[in-house]
Amino acid sequence: MQHLVILGAGTAGTMMANRMAERLPRDRWTVTVVDKDDVHVYQPGLLFLPFRQYRVEEILKPRASLLSPRCELVLDAIDRVDPAEQVVALASGRRLPYDVLVVATGSHIRPEQTPGMTGRLWQKDVFDFYTLDGATKLAGRLDAFEGGRVIVDTLEMPIKCPVAPLEFTFLADAYFRERGIRDKVELVYATPLDGAFTKPVAAAAFGSMLEERGISVVTNFAANRVDEERRLLRSYDGREEPFDLLVTIPLHGGAEAIVKSGLGDDFGFVPTDKHTLQSKAHPNVFVIGDATDVPASKAGSVAHFEGDVLTENLLRFIEGRGLEPSFDGHANCFIETGRGKAMLIDFNYETEPLPGRFPLPGLGPFTLLEESEVNHWGKLAFKWVYWNVLVKGGELPLDHRMLMAGKRS
Q1: Quick one: pLDDT at residue 360?
Q2: Range of the domain at 132
Q3: What is the pTM of this model?
Q4: Strand, coil or helix: what is 304?
Q5: Which helix (H) or strand (E) holds 248?
Q6: Are 131 and 46 in contact (CB under 8 A)?
Q7: Statement to judge: residues 303 and 362 lie in one domain
Q8: Helix/strand/coil for 30
Protein backbone atom coordinates (compact mmCIF):
# COMPACT_ATOMS: atom_id res chain seq x y z
CA MET A 1 0.00 0.00 0.00
CA GLN A 2 1.26 3.49 -0.87
CA HIS A 3 0.62 6.61 1.15
CA LEU A 4 -0.38 10.15 0.19
CA VAL A 5 0.03 12.46 3.19
CA ILE A 6 -1.35 16.01 3.15
CA LEU A 7 -0.10 18.47 5.75
CA GLY A 8 -2.82 20.96 6.64
CA ALA A 9 -6.62 20.70 6.53
CA GLY A 10 -7.40 24.27 5.58
CA THR A 11 -8.80 25.34 2.22
CA ALA A 12 -6.07 23.87 0.02
CA GLY A 13 -5.41 20.72 2.02
CA THR A 14 -9.08 19.78 2.40
CA MET A 15 -9.80 20.38 -1.26
CA MET A 16 -6.83 18.26 -2.36
CA ALA A 17 -7.64 15.44 0.06
CA ASN A 18 -11.17 15.16 -1.31
CA ARG A 19 -10.01 15.30 -4.93
CA MET A 20 -7.34 12.66 -4.48
CA ALA A 21 -9.61 10.42 -2.38
CA GLU A 22 -11.91 10.29 -5.39
CA ARG A 23 -9.17 9.65 -7.95
CA LEU A 24 -6.60 7.34 -6.34
CA PRO A 25 -7.21 3.56 -6.40
CA ARG A 26 -8.53 2.46 -3.01
CA ASP A 27 -6.68 -0.84 -3.12
CA ARG A 28 -3.29 0.85 -3.65
CA TRP A 29 -3.35 4.23 -1.89
CA THR A 30 -4.22 5.67 1.51
CA VAL A 31 -5.01 9.39 1.95
CA THR A 32 -4.05 10.92 5.30
CA VAL A 33 -4.58 14.55 6.34
CA VAL A 34 -2.86 16.11 9.34
CA ASP A 35 -3.84 19.20 11.30
CA LYS A 36 -3.55 20.30 14.90
CA ASP A 37 -7.28 20.68 15.62
CA ASP A 38 -10.74 19.94 14.24
CA VAL A 39 -11.77 23.56 13.58
CA HIS A 40 -11.93 24.72 9.96
CA VAL A 41 -12.26 28.50 9.62
CA TYR A 42 -13.77 30.17 6.55
CA GLN A 43 -11.06 32.80 6.43
CA PRO A 44 -12.81 35.31 4.12
CA GLY A 45 -15.44 35.61 6.86
CA LEU A 46 -12.92 37.04 9.33
CA LEU A 47 -13.12 40.35 7.45
CA PHE A 48 -16.80 40.72 8.35
CA LEU A 49 -16.62 39.75 12.04
CA PRO A 50 -15.32 43.13 13.31
CA PHE A 51 -18.33 44.85 11.74
CA ARG A 52 -20.86 42.31 13.09
CA GLN A 53 -21.83 41.29 9.56
CA TYR A 54 -21.15 37.61 10.26
CA ARG A 55 -21.56 35.52 13.40
CA VAL A 56 -18.68 33.32 14.54
CA GLU A 57 -20.71 30.14 14.10
CA GLU A 58 -21.23 30.96 10.40
CA ILE A 59 -17.54 30.63 9.59
CA LEU A 60 -16.60 27.51 11.59
CA LYS A 61 -17.09 23.82 10.81
CA PRO A 62 -15.42 20.63 12.05
CA ARG A 63 -12.65 19.61 9.67
CA ALA A 64 -13.85 16.02 9.71
CA SER A 65 -17.25 17.03 8.36
CA LEU A 66 -15.64 18.41 5.20
CA LEU A 67 -13.46 15.41 4.35
CA SER A 68 -14.30 12.31 2.35
CA PRO A 69 -14.94 9.26 4.57
CA ARG A 70 -12.02 7.67 2.75
CA CYS A 71 -9.57 10.17 4.26
CA GLU A 72 -7.92 9.58 7.63
CA LEU A 73 -7.83 12.83 9.62
CA VAL A 74 -4.99 12.88 12.15
CA LEU A 75 -5.41 15.59 14.78
CA ASP A 76 -1.88 16.24 15.96
CA ALA A 77 0.75 18.96 15.66
CA ILE A 78 3.44 18.43 13.02
CA ASP A 79 6.91 18.33 14.54
CA ARG A 80 9.00 17.99 11.40
CA VAL A 81 9.28 16.42 7.96
CA ASP A 82 12.19 14.13 7.11
CA PRO A 83 12.40 14.07 3.29
CA ALA A 84 15.30 11.60 3.30
CA GLU A 85 13.31 9.03 5.29
CA GLN A 86 9.99 10.12 3.70
CA VAL A 87 8.40 10.43 7.12
CA VAL A 88 6.34 13.08 8.92
CA ALA A 89 7.06 13.16 12.65
CA LEU A 90 4.16 14.32 14.83
CA ALA A 91 4.26 15.95 18.28
CA SER A 92 2.73 12.85 19.86
CA GLY A 93 5.63 10.72 18.62
CA ARG A 94 3.67 9.09 15.82
CA ARG A 95 5.50 8.82 12.49
CA LEU A 96 3.64 8.88 9.19
CA PRO A 97 5.45 7.38 6.18
CA TYR A 98 4.65 8.86 2.78
CA ASP A 99 5.27 8.08 -0.85
CA VAL A 100 3.94 11.47 -1.95
CA LEU A 101 3.63 14.50 0.31
CA VAL A 102 1.44 17.57 -0.24
CA VAL A 103 2.37 20.59 1.88
CA ALA A 104 -0.66 22.80 2.57
CA THR A 105 0.44 24.28 5.89
CA GLY A 106 -0.56 27.82 5.01
CA SER A 107 0.69 31.21 6.14
CA HIS A 108 0.57 32.47 9.72
CA ILE A 109 0.80 35.91 11.33
CA ARG A 110 3.83 36.71 13.50
CA PRO A 111 2.90 39.86 15.50
CA GLU A 112 5.48 39.01 18.17
CA GLN A 113 8.28 39.65 15.65
CA THR A 114 7.55 43.39 15.59
CA PRO A 115 8.87 45.17 18.72
CA GLY A 116 6.10 46.67 20.84
CA MET A 117 3.24 45.16 18.88
CA THR A 118 2.17 42.52 21.39
CA GLY A 119 2.78 44.68 24.45
CA ARG A 120 0.20 46.29 26.73
CA LEU A 121 -1.80 47.79 23.82
CA TRP A 122 -2.26 44.42 22.09
CA GLN A 123 -5.97 43.61 21.69
CA LYS A 124 -6.81 46.85 23.49
CA ASP A 125 -5.88 49.46 20.88
CA VAL A 126 -3.74 47.33 18.56
CA PHE A 127 -5.53 44.49 16.75
CA ASP A 128 -5.28 42.07 13.87
CA PHE A 129 -8.31 40.68 12.04
CA TYR A 130 -6.53 37.74 10.40
CA THR A 131 -7.31 35.42 13.32
CA LEU A 132 -10.61 34.45 14.94
CA ASP A 133 -9.45 35.82 18.28
CA GLY A 134 -8.25 39.10 16.80
CA ALA A 135 -11.35 39.69 14.67
CA THR A 136 -13.82 39.02 17.48
CA LYS A 137 -11.98 41.25 19.97
CA LEU A 138 -11.69 44.01 17.39
CA ALA A 139 -15.48 43.91 17.01
CA GLY A 140 -15.86 44.86 20.66
CA ARG A 141 -13.35 47.71 20.33
CA LEU A 142 -15.12 49.11 17.28
CA ASP A 143 -18.44 49.00 19.13
CA ALA A 144 -16.97 51.30 21.79
CA PHE A 145 -14.93 53.53 19.45
CA GLU A 146 -16.19 57.13 19.36
CA GLY A 147 -13.52 58.85 17.29
CA GLY A 148 -9.83 59.39 16.75
CA ARG A 149 -7.04 58.40 14.37
CA VAL A 150 -7.39 54.90 12.93
CA ILE A 151 -4.48 53.37 11.03
CA VAL A 152 -4.85 50.26 8.88
CA ASP A 153 -1.28 49.09 8.28
CA THR A 154 0.39 46.25 6.41
CA LEU A 155 3.88 45.59 7.73
CA GLU A 156 5.42 43.67 4.86
CA MET A 157 4.55 41.47 1.90
CA PRO A 158 3.70 38.66 1.38
CA ILE A 159 0.43 38.41 3.33
CA LYS A 160 -2.68 36.30 3.08
CA CYS A 161 -5.29 37.88 0.81
CA PRO A 162 -3.43 41.05 -0.29
CA VAL A 163 -6.72 42.93 -0.86
CA ALA A 164 -8.03 42.33 2.69
CA PRO A 165 -6.39 45.47 4.18
CA LEU A 166 -8.10 47.56 1.49
CA GLU A 167 -11.41 45.82 2.14
CA PHE A 168 -11.16 46.46 5.86
CA THR A 169 -10.44 50.13 5.22
CA PHE A 170 -13.43 50.54 2.90
CA LEU A 171 -15.71 48.70 5.34
CA ALA A 172 -14.43 50.80 8.24
CA ASP A 173 -15.25 53.97 6.31
CA ALA A 174 -18.79 52.70 5.68
CA TYR A 175 -19.15 51.51 9.29
CA PHE A 176 -18.19 54.88 10.77
CA ARG A 177 -20.55 56.64 8.35
CA GLU A 178 -23.43 54.36 9.35
CA ARG A 179 -22.73 55.18 13.00
CA GLY A 180 -22.68 58.90 12.21
CA ILE A 181 -19.14 59.45 13.51
CA ARG A 182 -17.13 59.51 10.27
CA ASP A 183 -16.38 63.20 10.77
CA LYS A 184 -14.75 62.30 14.10
CA VAL A 185 -12.49 59.64 12.56
CA GLU A 186 -9.26 60.22 10.67
CA LEU A 187 -8.80 57.04 8.61
CA VAL A 188 -5.30 56.24 7.36
CA TYR A 189 -4.19 53.44 5.02
CA ALA A 190 -0.46 52.73 5.47
CA THR A 191 1.35 50.34 3.14
CA PRO A 192 4.95 49.29 2.38
CA LEU A 193 4.07 49.46 -1.32
CA ASP A 194 4.40 52.55 -3.52
CA GLY A 195 0.66 52.47 -4.18
CA ALA A 196 -2.58 51.03 -2.87
CA PHE A 197 -1.96 47.62 -4.51
CA THR A 198 0.78 45.57 -6.16
CA LYS A 199 -0.52 45.99 -9.73
CA PRO A 200 -0.39 49.53 -11.27
CA VAL A 201 -3.83 49.69 -12.93
CA ALA A 202 -5.61 48.31 -9.85
CA ALA A 203 -3.46 50.50 -7.57
CA ALA A 204 -4.63 53.61 -9.42
CA ALA A 205 -8.28 52.55 -9.17
CA PHE A 206 -8.06 51.78 -5.46
CA GLY A 207 -6.10 54.97 -4.81
CA SER A 208 -8.87 57.05 -6.38
CA MET A 209 -11.50 55.25 -4.30
CA LEU A 210 -9.57 55.87 -1.08
CA GLU A 211 -9.18 59.57 -1.97
CA GLU A 212 -12.90 59.92 -2.76
CA ARG A 213 -13.74 58.56 0.69
CA GLY A 214 -11.38 60.95 2.46
CA ILE A 215 -8.95 58.19 3.46
CA SER A 216 -5.30 59.23 3.71
CA VAL A 217 -2.75 56.95 2.05
CA VAL A 218 0.79 56.64 3.38
CA THR A 219 2.99 54.75 0.90
CA ASN A 220 6.44 53.17 1.20
CA PHE A 221 5.84 52.92 4.93
CA ALA A 222 7.69 49.85 6.20
CA ALA A 223 6.71 49.72 9.87
CA ASN A 224 9.20 48.16 12.25
CA ARG A 225 8.05 49.14 15.75
CA VAL A 226 5.05 50.11 17.84
CA ASP A 227 5.88 52.82 20.38
CA GLU A 228 3.41 51.99 23.15
CA GLU A 229 4.17 55.00 25.32
CA ARG A 230 3.69 57.59 22.59
CA ARG A 231 1.14 55.51 20.65
CA LEU A 232 3.11 55.73 17.42
CA LEU A 233 3.78 53.36 14.55
CA ARG A 234 7.36 53.81 13.36
CA SER A 235 8.92 52.90 10.03
CA TYR A 236 12.48 51.94 9.12
CA ASP A 237 13.09 55.35 7.54
CA GLY A 238 12.25 57.16 10.78
CA ARG A 239 8.72 58.31 9.91
CA GLU A 240 6.10 58.12 12.66
CA GLU A 241 2.31 57.76 12.45
CA PRO A 242 0.30 58.40 15.64
CA PHE A 243 -2.80 56.31 16.29
CA ASP A 244 -5.73 55.93 18.64
CA LEU A 245 -6.58 52.58 17.08
CA LEU A 246 -4.15 50.48 15.05
CA VAL A 247 -5.47 47.67 12.87
CA THR A 248 -2.40 45.81 11.73
CA ILE A 249 -1.66 43.08 9.23
CA PRO A 250 1.41 41.64 10.96
CA LEU A 251 4.40 39.92 9.42
CA HIS A 252 3.54 36.55 7.89
CA GLY A 253 5.54 33.35 7.77
CA GLY A 254 5.24 29.70 6.92
CA ALA A 255 4.47 26.97 9.42
CA GLU A 256 7.04 26.41 12.17
CA ALA A 257 7.32 22.73 11.24
CA ILE A 258 8.36 23.70 7.71
CA VAL A 259 11.08 25.98 9.09
CA LYS A 260 12.21 23.30 11.54
CA SER A 261 12.42 20.75 8.72
CA GLY A 262 14.60 22.99 6.55
CA LEU A 263 12.01 22.97 3.78
CA GLY A 264 11.32 26.70 3.77
CA ASP A 265 12.95 29.92 2.58
CA ASP A 266 13.76 32.87 4.85
CA PHE A 267 10.02 33.44 5.39
CA GLY A 268 9.24 29.77 5.94
CA PHE A 269 7.55 29.27 2.56
CA VAL A 270 8.47 26.24 0.46
CA PRO A 271 10.48 26.91 -2.73
CA THR A 272 8.08 25.66 -5.39
CA ASP A 273 8.08 25.45 -9.17
CA LYS A 274 5.60 28.20 -10.01
CA HIS A 275 4.08 26.29 -12.92
CA THR A 276 4.03 22.63 -11.79
CA LEU A 277 3.74 23.17 -7.99
CA GLN A 278 6.42 20.57 -7.34
CA SER A 279 8.96 21.24 -4.59
CA LYS A 280 12.23 22.47 -6.08
CA ALA A 281 14.20 20.27 -3.67
CA HIS A 282 12.23 17.03 -3.42
CA PRO A 283 10.46 15.45 -6.44
CA ASN A 284 7.82 13.59 -4.40
CA VAL A 285 6.85 16.71 -2.44
CA PHE A 286 4.24 19.11 -3.84
CA VAL A 287 3.05 22.41 -2.42
CA ILE A 288 -0.24 24.30 -2.65
CA GLY A 289 -1.89 27.44 -1.33
CA ASP A 290 -0.27 29.89 1.05
CA ALA A 291 2.61 27.50 1.87
CA THR A 292 4.27 28.07 -1.52
CA ASP A 293 6.77 30.78 -2.39
CA VAL A 294 5.27 31.29 -5.87
CA PRO A 295 4.74 34.96 -6.84
CA ALA A 296 0.94 34.68 -6.80
CA SER A 297 -1.55 36.03 -4.28
CA LYS A 298 -2.00 33.98 -1.13
CA ALA A 299 -5.76 33.68 -1.58
CA GLY A 300 -8.44 31.02 -1.72
CA SER A 301 -9.05 31.46 -5.44
CA VAL A 302 -5.38 30.82 -6.12
CA ALA A 303 -5.53 27.60 -4.08
CA HIS A 304 -8.54 26.54 -6.16
CA PHE A 305 -6.81 27.21 -9.49
CA GLU A 306 -3.62 25.58 -8.21
CA GLY A 307 -5.72 22.57 -7.19
CA ASP A 308 -6.83 22.00 -10.77
CA VAL A 309 -3.19 21.84 -11.87
CA LEU A 310 -1.92 19.90 -8.85
CA THR A 311 -4.57 17.19 -9.13
CA GLU A 312 -3.42 16.41 -12.66
CA ASN A 313 0.27 16.63 -11.77
CA LEU A 314 -0.03 14.34 -8.76
CA LEU A 315 -1.63 11.70 -10.96
CA ARG A 316 1.03 12.22 -13.63
CA PHE A 317 3.81 11.88 -11.06
CA ILE A 318 2.32 8.70 -9.61
CA GLU A 319 1.98 7.23 -13.10
CA GLY A 320 5.55 8.19 -14.05
CA ARG A 321 4.52 10.78 -16.64
CA GLY A 322 5.94 14.26 -17.10
CA LEU A 323 4.35 17.14 -15.21
CA GLU A 324 2.29 19.84 -16.90
CA PRO A 325 3.70 23.37 -16.28
CA SER A 326 0.24 24.86 -16.57
CA PHE A 327 -0.33 27.05 -13.48
CA ASP A 328 -0.15 30.68 -14.62
CA GLY A 329 -0.60 32.45 -11.28
CA HIS A 330 -4.32 33.01 -11.84
CA ALA A 331 -6.02 34.96 -9.02
CA ASN A 332 -9.61 36.13 -8.83
CA CYS A 333 -10.67 38.32 -5.91
CA PHE A 334 -13.83 40.11 -4.84
CA ILE A 335 -13.04 43.32 -2.93
CA GLU A 336 -15.68 44.67 -0.57
CA THR A 337 -15.85 48.45 -0.96
CA GLY A 338 -18.64 49.20 1.52
CA ARG A 339 -22.19 50.46 1.15
CA GLY A 340 -23.36 47.17 -0.36
CA LYS A 341 -20.91 47.17 -3.25
CA ALA A 342 -17.77 45.31 -4.25
CA MET A 343 -15.17 45.19 -6.98
CA LEU A 344 -13.72 42.15 -8.76
CA ILE A 345 -10.19 41.71 -10.11
CA ASP A 346 -8.82 38.89 -12.26
CA PHE A 347 -5.09 38.58 -13.03
CA ASN A 348 -2.10 36.24 -13.19
CA TYR A 349 1.71 36.25 -13.20
CA GLU A 350 1.96 38.26 -16.40
CA THR A 351 -1.31 40.18 -16.76
CA GLU A 352 -2.52 42.75 -14.26
CA PRO A 353 -6.20 43.37 -13.43
CA LEU A 354 -8.09 44.86 -16.37
CA PRO A 355 -11.62 46.27 -16.76
CA GLY A 356 -14.33 44.18 -18.40
CA ARG A 357 -16.91 41.52 -17.60
CA PHE A 358 -16.55 38.16 -15.88
CA PRO A 359 -16.93 35.24 -16.34
CA LEU A 360 -18.98 35.60 -19.56
CA PRO A 361 -17.53 38.08 -22.10
CA GLY A 362 -19.87 41.03 -22.52
CA LEU A 363 -22.44 39.56 -20.15
CA GLY A 364 -20.80 39.17 -16.77
CA PRO A 365 -22.73 39.19 -14.50
CA PHE A 366 -19.70 40.54 -12.62
CA THR A 367 -17.85 43.72 -13.53
CA LEU A 368 -14.05 43.91 -13.40
CA LEU A 369 -12.32 46.91 -11.78
CA GLU A 370 -15.69 48.52 -11.18
CA GLU A 371 -17.92 48.69 -8.10
CA SER A 372 -21.32 47.03 -8.29
CA GLU A 373 -23.98 45.53 -6.06
CA VAL A 374 -23.81 42.31 -8.09
CA ASN A 375 -20.15 41.91 -7.14
CA HIS A 376 -21.10 42.36 -3.48
CA TRP A 377 -23.71 39.63 -3.68
CA GLY A 378 -21.21 37.45 -5.49
CA LYS A 379 -18.79 37.82 -2.58
CA LEU A 380 -21.47 36.89 -0.06
CA ALA A 381 -22.67 33.94 -2.17
CA PHE A 382 -19.16 32.55 -2.26
CA LYS A 383 -19.51 31.37 1.35
CA TRP A 384 -22.09 28.79 0.25
CA VAL A 385 -19.90 27.77 -2.70
CA TYR A 386 -16.92 27.41 -0.39
CA TRP A 387 -18.61 25.11 2.13
CA ASN A 388 -20.56 23.04 -0.37
CA VAL A 389 -18.39 22.83 -3.48
CA LEU A 390 -14.83 24.16 -3.26
CA VAL A 391 -13.41 22.47 -0.15
CA LYS A 392 -15.29 19.29 -0.94
CA GLY A 393 -13.31 18.99 -4.15
CA GLY A 394 -16.14 19.86 -6.52
CA GLU A 395 -15.61 21.46 -9.90
CA LEU A 396 -16.33 25.16 -10.38
CA PRO A 397 -17.16 26.52 -13.87
CA LEU A 398 -13.95 28.57 -14.03
CA ASP A 399 -10.85 27.80 -16.05
CA HIS A 400 -7.68 27.58 -13.97
CA ARG A 401 -6.00 29.69 -16.65
CA MET A 402 -6.64 33.41 -16.78
CA LEU A 403 -8.54 34.19 -19.97
CA MET A 404 -8.50 37.52 -21.81
CA ALA A 405 -12.04 37.12 -23.15
CA GLY A 406 -14.26 39.89 -21.79
CA LYS A 407 -11.35 42.11 -20.72
CA ARG A 408 -10.36 45.51 -22.10
CA SER A 409 -6.76 46.67 -22.22
Answers
A1: 86
A2: 111-251
A3: 0.96
A4: helix
A5: strand 245-249
A6: yes
A7: no
A8: strand
